[in-house]
Amino acid sequence: MPEGFKSRYDLLIITGPTASGKTSLAAMVADGVGGEIISADSRQVYRRMDLGTGKDLNDYSVGGKQIPYHLIDIAEPGYKYNVFEYQRDFLKVFSGLKERNVFPVVCGGSGMYIDSIVKGYRLFEVPPDTSLRRILEEKTMEELTEILATYRKLHNTTDIDTKKRVIRAIEIEHFNSTSKEKQTSFPDLKSLIIGISVDRESRRRNISARLRQRLVEGMVEEVKRLLDEGLSEESMIYYGLEYKYITMFLMGRLSYDEMVHNLETAIHQFAKRQMTWFRGMERKGIKIHWIDGELPMEEKVRSILDLLRN
Question: Residue 137 phi/psi, 5° resolution?
Answer without folding.
Answer: -65, -20
